[in-house]
Write a structure and sequence with these properties.
It is a single chain. The chain is of the alpha/beta class and 267 residues long. It has a single domain, classed as Metallo-beta-lactamase, Chain A, CATH 3.60.15. Helix content is 30%, strand content 21%. The strands form two sheets. A seven-stranded mixed sheet has the order 1-2-3-4-5-6-7, covered by helices on one side. Strands 8-9-10-11-12 form a five-stranded mixed sheet, with no helix packed on it. A hairpin with an 8-residue loop joins strand 9 and strand 10. Helix 6 packs antiparallel against helix 8. The longest helix is centred in the C-terminal third of the chain and has 22 residues. The radius of gyration is 17 Å and the shape is globular. The protein starts with 13 loop residues before the first strand and ends with a helix.
């Protein structure tokens, strides 16, 4: 897979609501929350886009050296490629689903780097191995982790409150929507059972039951972020606030898997 030069993958850093910010790139999202006692980050994107992440933080008045914990949605290079450098730069701790830890350390060749025509050389050892239901508090923010295996076996979704000082809303980040790792071909290649697809469906139904006011994604398309950003720039301060978005997205994710299975069975 060929990528444009990093500078062509830029997406404007912006405040989504209150203490929640987008600092990622066009090809992989990163979000930051100012907890009042340091920053927490969700995903670091590709290593070659790290400069965009750091620049975006500074543009938003966020100091990378205030990072406390980096949460990862799942164990792929486009979501932890910049993590090792940030650890060395800031001393931040890292958290990932326990079953995806071998991907981060390089013990298991599951980073999806080879499939993208890349090499994964940014291995790191996570500090916190997350299980379903774990909660971690930093400052005024408690992050709840919910397992939703499928895209990877250790994918984690996250839920947490954000505030502008007057209103408190709940944000949700789904752990992995891509179908590329749920194809029969890929599952057979890595030795995973087809039942992982059933796990994905069950996980999406669990997630759908959660209340979410602000849906953020680990890729821009997951939550239709570009369209919402345009509305935000046009003056709609509540562009990202829509409690109905979350459930719709979970159903869209299930449909994509059903469509994939239907295509495979039609061959």
């Amino acid at each position: 897979m060929a990528f444009n030069p990093p500078w062509r993958n830029t997406f404007p850093p912006h405040k989504i609501f209150g203490n929640l910010y987008f600092c990622g790139s066009r090809i992989a999202s990163s979000h930051v929350v100012d907890t009042g006692d340091g920053l927490i980050m969700f995903d670091t994107g590709y290593g070659f886009c790290l400069y965009q992440l750091i620049d975006g933080m500074y543009r938003l008045g966020l100091n990378p050296y205030d990072l406390k914990i980096i949460f990862h949605t799942h164990g792929h290079i486009d979501h932890y490629g910049g993590t090792k450098a940030l650890i060395e730069m800031t001393g931040a701790k890292t958290a990932i689903g326990a079953l995806d830890a071998p991907s981060a350390t390089g013990e298991a060749d599951l980073s999806f780097a080879k499939e993208l025509g890349m090499e994964y050389n940014e291995m790191f050892t996570p500090d916190i191995l997350l299980s379903d239901g774990d909660c971690i508090t930093v400052g005024n923010t408690t992050v709840k982790a919910m397992a939703n295996p499928g895209h990877t076996i250790g994918a984690m979704s996250y839920f947490f409150n954000v505030t502008d000082g007057k209103e408190t809303l709940r944000a949700g980040l789904q752990g992995g929507m891509g179908m590329n790792t749920l194809s029969r071909e890929y599952l057979e290649k890595v030795g995973y059972p087809l039942s992982l697809r059933e796990d994905y469906i069950k996980g999406m139904d669990r997630l759908k039951a959660e209340h979410v006011d602000i849906h953020i994604g680990n890729h821009l398309g997951d939550n239709h972020a570009p369209e919402k950003y345009e509305r935000l720039m046009a003056g709609d301060e509540r562009a990202f606030i829509n409690p109905g978005d979350w459930a719709i997205s979970m159903e869209e994710g299930k449909k994509r898997l059903y469509d994939l299975i239907e295509k495979e069975e039609a061959k």
